[in-house]
Amino acid sequence: MTQTASSQSTTEASQDGHKPDAAAAVEAIAVRSRNAARRMARANRAWKDKALREIAESLVAKRDVVLQANRQDLDEGKVNGTSAALLDRLTLDSKRIDGLAAALENLAALPDPVGTVMRGQTLPNGLRLRQVHVPMGVVAAIYEARPNVTVDIAGLALKSGNAVILRGGSAARHTNVALLGIIRDALDRVGLPADAVQSVDEYGRDGANALMRARGLVDVLIPRGGRELIQSVVNNAKVPVIETGEGNVHIYLDESAGTEMAVDILLNAKTQRPSVCNTVETLLVHRDAAASADVLAALAGAGVRLHVDQRVAGILPSGVQATAATDEDWAREYMDLDLAVAMVDSMDDALRHIRTWTTGHTEAIITNDLRNAERFIAEIDSAAVIVNASTRFTDGGELGLGAEVGISTQKMHARGPMGLRELTTTKWIVQGDGQVRD
Amino acid sequence: MTQTASSQSTTEASQDGHKPDAAAAVEAIAVRSRNAARRMARANRAWKDKALREIAESLVAKRDVVLQANRQDLDEGKVNGTSAALLDRLTLDSKRIDGLAAALENLAALPDPVGTVMRGQTLPNGLRLRQVHVPMGVVAAIYEARPNVTVDIAGLALKSGNAVILRGGSAARHTNVALLGIIRDALDRVGLPADAVQSVDEYGRDGANALMRARGLVDVLIPRGGRELIQSVVNNAKVPVIETGEGNVHIYLDESAGTEMAVDILLNAKTQRPSVCNTVETLLVHRDAAASADVLAALAGAGVRLHVDQRVAGILPSGVQATAATDEDWAREYMDLDLAVAMVDSMDDALRHIRTWTTGHTEAIITNDLRNAERFIAEIDSAAVIVNASTRFTDGGELGLGAEVGISTQKMHARGPMGLRELTTTKWIVQGDGQVRD
To answer: What is the rounded CA–CA span in Å between residue A387 and residue A429?
Structure first.
């Protein structure tokens, strides 16, 4: 009956060989998670950092175990006809494991958000008041076939004093079992509860659904992955969700924009890493923007496929190819070397286009006109508004948050890049010496 | 075809005499709300305060219109057999209208949360960064037959730069139409959009349901009312909700508690205003707490009906009556002069009882023991943790927030008393001079 920390204890029913009801199994996991969360909330920073470093060392030491499990997933994936792109995301190698360990070391070096006093005062009646950051409690994450997310989210949740329940993609299941075992054993060794990191993977889709409906048991659910996954979670969840990621990012090239800056920023925003959410997807050029032709030529020269409206087609430099844009292009997050380009007559038109098509992630203006910059900042209603810089800066690391949980495109709780603080809530602490209300 | 601001423009279908589809009508209202929200977000504090004062003056000036509409609701209520308690909540009189106007004046005197910089820095690459509070956008509220909430929520939403969509109880519909007309006319007079305050009342339950499902159109929905209303909204809403109000509040009487302080706090927490959410509902007494008998005698003397476990029954002072408590009593929010009382052997037992039955609103300890106070603060996972003071202090006004939107019992976005700041979100503003990512 003894169990190592690495194997999650399962319900009796499953030990008999019967698959228990997923909802009941997930509830049992969540109850264990709640108990573990209480212990994590009281662990001080030094203890949590020790756990993160223990996990990092263990990942490196048990590299072979992880790589072997990963090869098993890759072999099964090939047999099942998994796409090359998915297989690539699924693949861990020695360097990626070193990267995961290094990320955990970085996390250990970051300040602890727990215990930070958000505000406080002494009231006229002598009550001492403070609003303090405390862990959320039980964090859940549903993600796809990138096993690095397993380590990443577990590390972020632990550092912020939470317990976490994971649901990874079935394509990565052997790798995730190996990673989970390493993490749980490490927690056990430093005296923190192994159940602070659990998985519902063995219950498949039913497990994921039960997790989404575990109201009162899960404090926050974070979906990480493509649009379809995120929308499915947002639509089906009964627990609080933080919506992340979708970025139909716009850059508006104002009539006053200088050519050199415009070319630099557009090339960076589109080509530096086209597959991520903060890459630009639509360029709006003012009809009098002198920089337009050079920008289009530079983008085409860098291999960007342009999807343009009729008026932009009329100003294309000779030799630059483009296809005609439709409404689909304005809506689309290409996440590839494609860019939609439209011409506008005014900032009003630019703002209207953005309002119509934005996902509220990031929008930028390139301008030398102060009034236009101010107006763009005031009127754009997105998580990040950028003046004269690349949209690629909408990133927790770049904005100085240290670590990134994801990029929230919702308005409640967190908006834009989320750091450790966004995995906490607050608690009012009121201390008196007998005060009562009149 | 001309319309005064006081009458919301309705869809063409309804002008033909056909009731349009509630979902379509609510969508049209939400689109107008979004447009109004854009204008509200750009209004500075002076302008918003002018609107609040204009509404306050107008309420007083048009007092008779409101009272007449209110009498109509009361008359219909009596015909329909509405309970006396509901009729009382529904009733406005001249003094209550003065109170509403005064609350708006107070709101005008409060600082504007919009534009407050939450954090900011200049990055090593020269990017200037700030995270600024901005309005949520479209706030929705579903509430019951208290017409004061119409003015209250509208004022809070306007002050924080939002537009608001209201769904009041049908029992107050004439009063709400009158109040809405006064608010919208006042907005119009000061040059702010009347559509910043709209109602879906004419679409009845279908309107309320459509509002709950208006994903992407409503930024946050706040239910205000009893447990049933709040649970129905939480369970059915597809838009982000802030759960408010339920308070199964505990006080733990530690073995070291002094009698005088214990009596004062318990009497205040139970009898000062028993019908509200921050009133105490369960008292846990340590088996060695010397203050217990005096506390129970004082409560009984103040007319509190005690529901006690067997061990508490054994220490009841002579002449004090009590009924036997069941699990229902531990779970129940009486909101009346009733109190459940249990005896515990240790703080462990007290914490376990609270964990089992709490709604996460407020818990207090009465103690003279530093270690016990610290442990209670650390381990209680509720919006407010109070040491040696009445639980009645969990209130926006008392905690210095100025105005109160409600008391959040959830962990996401806001926890505990919510002020104006909790009706805002944030926006990252990034300003550079051509920065790109390496």
So the answer is: 40
User: CA–CA separation, B296 vs A417, rounded Å?
Assistant: 52
Q: Per residue in B236-283, pLDDT tens?
A: 898 999 988 789 999 999 999 999 999 999 999 999 999 889 999 999
- Report pLDDT for B28: 97
Domains of chain A: 12-236 (3.40.605.10), 249-393 (3.40.309.10)
Q: Which of B263, B252, B250 is nearest to B366 (CA)?
A: B252
At residue A57, φ and ψ (nearest 5 deg) are: -60, -40
Alpha helices, DSSP H only, in A43-118? Answer: 45-61, 63-79, 84-90, 94-109
pLDDT for the residue B31: 96
Identify whether the C-beta of residue B138 lies closer than 8 Å to the C-beta of residue B217: yes
Average pLDDT over residues B314-322: 95
A269 vs B contacts (CB less than 8 Å): 436
Q: Which residues pair with A344 in a beta bridge?
A: A286
Predicted confidence at residue B3, as pLDDT, reads: 44
What is d(CA B120, CA B118) in angstroms, rounded to the nearest whole number? 7
Mutation site for A-interface testing, chosen from B425, B426, B433, B438 by largest number of A Cβ within 10 Å: B425
Chain B residues inside the 8 Å CB shell of A382: 427
pLDDT averaged over every residue in chain B: 93
DSSP A224-275: ES-HHHHHHHHHH--S-B--B----EEEEE-TT--HHHHHHHHHHHHHSSTT
Amino acid A93: pLDDT? 95
What would the pLDDT profile of A119-128 be if each residue is shown by its tens digit?
Answer: 999 999 999 9
